[in-house]
Amino acid sequence: MPLLLGSVTLPLAKLLRYDSFTRTIEASEFLRNPAQATKAVVDAAVPQLAALRRALVAAREDLILGFGTAPLAAAAETFATTAAADFSPGRGADLALLEVGRTICGRSPSSFGACFSPQDLPPNQKVS
Amino acid sequence: MPFSCTDDAGWNNLHGKGCADYAAYCDAGAFRLGASWAGGEVFNFPERSCCACGKTPSEVVPAKPAPLFEKHLKSFCRGTDHEVKLKDEAACEAHCHPDQRPCACFHFNKGVCNFGFTYVGLQTSTKSSTAWIKTSALLAAPKAMVGPPNGAACVALPPRRLPPTFYLYNDAPFAWGPRLAACFASRQGMPPWAFAVNDTVHQTDGAPPPGVSYGLWLAAALANHPQRVATPEEARIFVVPAYGSLSENVGGCEGTTHAQRQDEAAKALQASPWFAKFPQRHVLLASSGSEDDRNPLGALSKLASQRGMVPLCVDREQCAPGFKKKAVVPPMPLMPLVAPSTRARVGYEACANGGGARRRASVYFRGRHAKDDEASALRSRLWALRELPGADVKYVSGGGGEIKEPSRSWLKAHGWSKDVRVPYSAATYASGVSHADFCIIAQEVRARPPAPASRPRAPRPRPRTHARADPASRVLGPRSVSMSMCVCVCRATPRARVARWSTRWRAAACRCCWGA
């Protein structure tokens, strides 16, 4: 379980509920008494460990591009990886593309409907 | 004659057609007249995979036998229900050979070979026990053991949030992934996604930092994505495959240089009517977090930033310059953490026995000291966590900052005497985080370059000084310390707010209190 200390930049922070699977140690508390501040957070989190782990399993699927030993299955024999080549996609690409969508059009990151006129979007999208 | 030709199972031309469909374009080992356009890299080399298009028996490479068992150090097999006394681990392995009996998992401990015919997971061992899992049982484990692919039977994944439909450019100038991987492998003797043992620029084992293969993993995730569309007309965004870090790392490959490849990609992109019309809806991987990147996208970066493309950046600060908007994505995880066995084990752990079983370590940290003052103060104090039961906290050497004087004094006052740092090992780190309940991710603010002296500074806004009118406020500070170290307490103002002002607006905060 990630214990965040201080100001840590979290990727996809607007798409993932980090508070469901992380805990934060307050920097000011930590500077005063590191061990006590950490212990307090850990002690409070231990009873919730099961829920935190389940949330982390779900978040892991959202954060990871793919599970496996090699991204190029066809090349695995050539490169002689230790296990059989396999790649099963996670949902990491979903959130990466949604983050792109959010960057392009924050109000409708999937459809872009709020930012582009219908003729600029499929199915009516045509090259002039 | 044993030679025969078999179409590559599962091959497709990246446009949804398989070898069977290529009968229309190929015959007797060659393309039909006028159909050679359907071959080559753009269509995933049908001539190498389909017999009708030219795949020859000599190209059929016998598959390397897959290892029968996968080795897992410091682990026991869960749920073993058979045991036999044997002299050593080799005898145990022979005992469990598939020709003898269908062991799914076995381990050898204290002269006893323990094994089971069903794989139900691993248990961490504090001793030097090694568990061996049958590869086929491991690959089937997520389904057989706990059902869903994430390994967690008790976790209902939230509904998938589908991203915008996207078109993935796959013309030759962009299709460098497998070729660069092959060039890397021929040079380094391992694929670019090989697990880097110490994850530094100065790898001694030839393996690159994880970021180098980011583009390959991203391409693999996008290739069969449900939102990928076959034609640009259907797309809301346009993904330009970019393997900048890998390309720069490889250098020369198939007679081209890194710069030439980026030039070619830039030219091809510029020629695209879709890029001309919707440049701001084009996206490419611009930064994969590899520390030895210098100019990973070359001319492509210049074009992309000038035309307003969206870069995917692992590190916002180190992302290619010139981009106005950036999409920050997570860095590549360490390879052992995305292994199917880890996925299954973590999922199993989240559900088995209520999901609350404690791990070997309670709190785990491996990291460098920070260069930034604020982060350094936090990181140096992690040393004090050694007094917590089950804490495993160590600093690693290489590239880290020195412990700043205020922190050094604090540490000395609390019994610290020696700055001990251990070499970083990614393998140790991956193992450590897998066996700890909590892993500390500490602030690591990089020191920003100082602003040019000639640059005019914008006037600072005056802070709101609510306490100025508060007659109950009192001053504790400026008489005993300098003005810049003013310490004051304003009763009517929340302490945190004053503290913040004291940091950013020291003088103003003091005036606030003096004024009262």
Task: Describe the 3D structure.
The complex is a heterodimer of chains A (128) and B (516). With 128 residues, chain A is an alpha+beta fold. Chain A folds into 2 domains: 3-63, no CATH class; 66-120, no CATH class. Chain A is 39% helix and 10% strand. Chain A has 5 helices and 4 strands. In chain A, the strands form 2 sheets. Chain A has a two-stranded parallel sheet with strand order 1-2. The radius of gyration of chain A is 21 Å and the shape is extended. Chain A starts with a strand and ends in a 24-residue tail after the last helix. In chain A, 44% of the residues are buried. Chain B folds into 5 domains: 1-64, no CATH class; 69-146, Hepatocyte Growth Factor (3-Layer(bba) Sandwich), CATH 3.50.4; 166-328, no CATH class; 359-439, no CATH class; 466-515, no CATH class. Chain B is 27% helix and 16% strand. At the A-B interface, strand 1, helix 1, helix 2, helix 3 and strand 3 of A face helix 4, helix 5, helix 8, strand 15 and helix 10 of B. Strand 1 (2-5) of chain A pairs parallel with strand 19 (436-442) of chain B.
